[in-house]
Q: What sequence folds into this?
């Protein structure tokens, strides 16, 4: 094993990146590589989305970050310290996979157990229960909780230490649409101020609504990392025209026009400034081409992900 | 309690034509208060050991089954601290467990003495304390083995199965065939069972030598060696468990 930890940064200095990984790799068998040379940077104070399909290595990465899994190689620094060290853990709150608590204890008692393990005062329990709106059921046994309540207790547990870094693994898993909306609002609130939130999900549309930056991962590798705007394509025109081949040739010959893609058989996606819509419309109509649709196309993160993974050669 | 008092007293009060002459008096004397320590001691290596093994499995195996280790290891305390705390708690929990068994045994013997019109004589306090310590050590050894099996198997069901097979079958077979095969005879001296029975035998307990639950017919060890062996089992099992917990990945909620 050639894993190495970087030196611990001095706490007195502000840390611009709260999570930094370099070549992070986890290999279970020669043919099973869960995390493959992962390089991610999470800035202080941002809500960072870690997105990828099931089996992409998201949860394994999060487990490495909190010290539950030892990486095979690469380096990793959390809040300037070593993953899993007592000092680091005291400043990190995590919800990893399905929330797991003692079924015979109440929600409140479970949080008391965690408070003791964390070495913190019980006074934090009531505020976090209020924050996740679970105070009314806090004295009921965990095994009687619905899935949504279990998720909320998991968030409460992650918040107990008032952490600088909050790591949430699929926090909306199993929630109904209303619950997912509430969870997204809660996460947005949690990401205020200096607190950093790292949230992983396979639901790209969900992360679009709450994240500042996103890292797209597939087969254990980071495909792309950046803001939503950086990941989506820039402004594009969506043109439905017939005959589409003639339209594509005309538009492609124009100065200052980028990529022209044919999608859905008779629709063109044109990388060009939206201010040229009228010019392009006139060009096509003057040539006898029927234009039935012309509007601005805003790519979703999902389509950006699909596009990026095809470029990277995955899924073939 | 079942095998030390309930069944023997039931046997005593049932049809005496079924038993050899004079056995009634022997049965009764063993159930009286002056012998309650020796009587309850005899049940610990087998029955108490099995229960202790299951307690040990549940103490740590349940954490794997519920998936709560993920939270326990990500709060602040290191894995070894969490494990050490749980093992200290296990050791403490065994004290009232053993004490309660002794207490019930005493009241059962008292009940029998009063019912049969026998004199109530109490054993010396030092004998009771000594026996409590010995039984705690036996249970600590077996529960440590249970903890180790639970850690290695990452759960409860498999661990309980493996533990019972080891305790009731493997050690028993080695002891039985140790009478005929020299290698197994040497090996039997290193079993938890042998150390447990040797310890209680040295304290005056009557060990059943005929085949059946709670019987033992191997060679006894000295007091010092049996205590050392039992303590060694505790240390070895906990060291192995701690090493595995320290180094192994915590993956998935089982």
A:
């Amino acid at each position: 094993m050639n894993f190495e930890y970087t030196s611990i940064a001095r706490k007195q200095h502000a840390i611009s990146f709260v999570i930094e990984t370099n070549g992070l790799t986890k290999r279970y068998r020669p043919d099973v590589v869960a995390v493959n040379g992962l390089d991610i940077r999470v800035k202080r104070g941002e809500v960072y989305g870690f997105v990828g399909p099931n089996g992409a290595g998201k949860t394994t990465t999060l487990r490495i970050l909190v010290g539950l899994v030892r990486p095979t190689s690469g380096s990793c620094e959390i809040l300037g310290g070593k993953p899993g060290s007592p000092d680091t853990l005291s400043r990190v709150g995590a919800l990893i996979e399905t929330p797991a608590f003692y079924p015979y204890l109440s929600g409140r008692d479970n949080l008391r157990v965690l408070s003791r393990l964390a070495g913190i005062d019980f006074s934090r329990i009531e505020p976090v229960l209020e924050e996740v709106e679970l105070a009314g059921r806090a004295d009921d046994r965990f095994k009687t909780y619905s899935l949504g309540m279990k998720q909320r207790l998991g968030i409460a547990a992650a918040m107990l230490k008032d952490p600088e870094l909050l790591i949430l693994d699929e926090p909306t898993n199993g929630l109904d649409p209303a619950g997912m909306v509430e969870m997204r609002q809660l996460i947005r609130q949690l990401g205020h101020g200096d607190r950093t939130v790292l949230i992983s999900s396979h639901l790209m549309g969900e992360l679009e609504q709450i994240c500042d930056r996103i890292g797209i991962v597939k087969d254990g590798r980071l495909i792309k990392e950046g803001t939503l705007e950086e990941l989506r394509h820039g402004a594009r025109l969506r043109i439905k025209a017939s005959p589409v081949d003639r339209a594509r040739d005309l538009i492609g010959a124009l100065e200052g026009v980028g990529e022209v893609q044919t999608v859905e058989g008779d629709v063109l996606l044109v990388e060009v400034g939206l201010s040229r819509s009228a010019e392009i419309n006139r060009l096509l109509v003057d040539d006898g081409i029927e234009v039935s649709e012309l509007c601005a196309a805003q790519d979703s993160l999902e389509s950006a992900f699909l596009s990026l993974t095809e470029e990277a050669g995955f899924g073939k | 309690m079942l095998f030390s008092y309930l069944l023997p007293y039931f046997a005593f009060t049932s049809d005496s034509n079924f038993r050899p002459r004079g056995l009634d008096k022997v049965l009764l004397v063993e159930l009286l208060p002056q012998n309650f320590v020796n009587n309850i001691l005899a049940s610990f290596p087998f029955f108490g050991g099995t229960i202790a093994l299951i307690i040990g499995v549940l103490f740590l195996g349940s954490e794997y089954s519920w998936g709560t280790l993920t939270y326990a290891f990500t709060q602040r305390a290191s894995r070894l601290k969490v494990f050490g705390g749980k093992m200290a708690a296990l050791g403490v929990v065994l004290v009232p467990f053993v004490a309660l068994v002794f207490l019930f045994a005493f009241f059962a013997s008292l009940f029998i003495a009063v019912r049969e019109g026998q004199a109530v004589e109490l054993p010396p306090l030092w004998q009771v304390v000594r026996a409590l310590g010995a039984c705690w050590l036996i249970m600590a050894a077996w529960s440590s083995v249970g903890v180790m099996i639970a850690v290695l198997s990452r759960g409860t069901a498999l661990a309980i199965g493996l533990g019972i097979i080891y305790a009731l079958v493997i050690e028993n077979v080695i002891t039985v065939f140790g009478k005929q095969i020299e290698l197994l005879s040497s090996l039997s001296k290193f079993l938890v069972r042998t150390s447990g029975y040797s310890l209680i035998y040295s304290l005056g307990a009557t060990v059943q030598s005929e085949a059946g639950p709670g019987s033992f017919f191997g060679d006894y060890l000295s007091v010092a060696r049996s205590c050392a062996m039992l303590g060694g089992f505790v240390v070895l099992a906990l060291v192995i468990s701690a090493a595995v917990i320290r180094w192994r990945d915590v993956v998935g909620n089982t």
Observations:
- Chain B has one domain: 40-95+125-247.
- Chain B touches chain A through 19 residues (CB under 8 Å).
- The CA atoms of residues 135 and 212 of chain B lie 21 Å apart.
- Chain B is about 70% helix and 0% strand.
